Known about the structure:
four-stranded antiparallel beta sheet; 13 strands; Hint_dom_sf; signal; Intein_N; Hint_dom_N; Hint domain-containing protein
Amino acid sequence: MFTLSRVVALLxxxxxxxxxxxxxxxxxxxxxxxxxxxxxxxxxxDCAVKQxxxxxxxxxxxxxxxxxxxAQGRTATQTKDEATMRAVGNRMQADGVGxxxxxxxxxxxxxxxGNMPGVSPETAQLxxxxxxxxxxxxxxxxxxxxxxxxxxxxxxxxxxxxxxMVGxxxxxxAQADFMQQMKNPSFAAAWxxxxxxxxxxxxxxxxxxxxxxxxxxxxxxxxxxxxxxLAPLVTTRAQEELSRLTDPANKLSAEAEWSQAxxxxxxxxxxxxxxxxxxxxxxxxxxxxxxxxxxxxxxxxEQRLAAAGRxxxxxxxxxxxxxxxxKARLTPFNAELNRIQYGDAIKRPQEQQAMxxxxxxxxxxxxxxxxxxxxxxxxxEVNKEYCSIKTELAKPFxxxxxxxFPAQALVTLADGSKQxxxxxxxxxxxxxxxARTGRISTTRVSAVQVHADHDYPLLRLRFATPAVLxxxxxxxxxxxxxxxVLATPNHPFLTADNDAVRADALSSTQAVPFTAAAxxxxxxxxxxxxxxxxxxxxxxxxxxxxxxxEGLLVGDK
Length: 557
C-alpha cells in the first residue's frame, strides 16, 4: 500500500545528502567469461614455483575497471534525475527542513513530491490525499480487495489503457478472485515458486474465467497516441533471476567448506606451536640433548609440512566446486542481462528504472570473481610456507659445543649484585627465570665449564629496551644501548616466547627478558658485530637451565 511513510522515504536520501547516490548502469560485458580466466590454485606443493602468476594482478585490475565503470555509468535519465535531486536537496537545505518538526517535514515532503524524478502527478496527488484524516478513515474502512482497486484507480494516468483496464468489471472480478486465493498460505507459497511463464499462464486462465479474453484486452488497450502496448517488461526476467541468486536461502555449500578448511588448518598450526611452547627445551649440555631438541623441532616441522600439503589438496577441490557453484548461480541472471543489453532492448521508462538493480547484479558477479581470485592466490602463500619449512627440514643435525662467554661477562647473583663469570663457583646462587610463573627466581650453579682449547670467536650484541627505542620527539639523540654482551655465536639466548635462539641468529623483533630496575622488561637486539676472539671462555650449568648475563636471559648450553 502507498502510505505517508513511503512518501517520506522517497525524499529520505535528498534530505540527508542533497543528492541521489544509488544510480549506476550495467556495462556491456559478459562477466561470466572471466570465470575461465581465473588461474586454478596449486593442488599440491611445488617448490619450483616461487611466486603467484602475474595474471592474478591483471585479472584483479580488469575487475576493478569493470566495477568502476558500472558505478560511474549513467543513463541520460539518471543524469537528469540526479541533477533534479540535487536541486531539490539544495532547496530543502535552504528552506531549513532539518529544523522542522516531523509533521512539518512530512507536509513539506508532500509539497516537493511532484518535483521528484519518477513520481507521476497521480502519485503526488494521492500522497496529498493521504494526509487528510477523512481520506485515511475512508481507506481504513475498505477491504483489501477494495483498497487495491481504489489505489489502482487513483494511480492510473487519466485516459490511459491502465485506467480503462482497472475500471473493467471483469478485471476487477479476476483481481478479487486472485487476492482471495493469495490469502491461502499454501497457494501463496506455490505461487512464489512458479516461474514468470507459469504465473502468466495462470493469470491468463483466470482472466478468461471472468470474461477477460485476449480480444477484449486488446480492445481495452486501444491505440492511443503515446501509449505503450501491454507487453511484459524486457527487464522482468533478469530481475527475477537476480532475486533468486540473492535469496538468503540460496547459499553455496563450497563457501562453508572453504571456511571450515581454513579454520582447521590454522587450528592445526596453532596446536603444533603450542606443543612446542609448553615443553621447555633441555639444556644444551651434550650432543644428546641437542639432538633431542633438534628431533622435537624436526617433528613439529614435519607436522606443519603435512598440514600445509593437506590444505592445498583439500582447498583445490573446494575451489573447483566453488567456481562451478558460482557459475551455476550467476549464469541465468547474466545470460538474461546480456540478451537485453546487447540488443539495446531496455527502452521504456519502467525498464530504465531497473538499471541500478541490474547493475547491482553485475557488481555481485564481480565480487564472486574477486573472491575466486583471492581463494586461488592464497594457495601460493601456503606453498611458499611449505617450501620454507621443507628447506628447514633439509638442514642436518650439527652438534655444537663450547658456547660460552669471556671471563669479564657479568652474571646476576641471587641478591641482584653482579659478578664476573670467571669468579663464579659451583654451588653459587644466581638469578634465573621461571617460565611457568614468568618471574625471576633463584637457582644453584651445578658446574662451571671452562674451555681453553683454541681461540673462540666472539660477537658483540647491543640490546635496547623499548624506553630507549621509542620516542615521540621530532629529533632524538643517537641510539644508546641499554646493555651490551659478548658471547660466542652459538650461545643460546632465551626469548619471551620460550625459544632458544643462537646469538648469531637472534633477530631485532625477538624479545629477550632483561632485568631492569623496575623488574623484567623486554630487550631487543639493536646491533650485532664481530668482537674478535678469546682464548678462554666460560659457561655455567644451573639447576634451572638458565641464568642472566649482563642482565639478559641466556641458556646454560
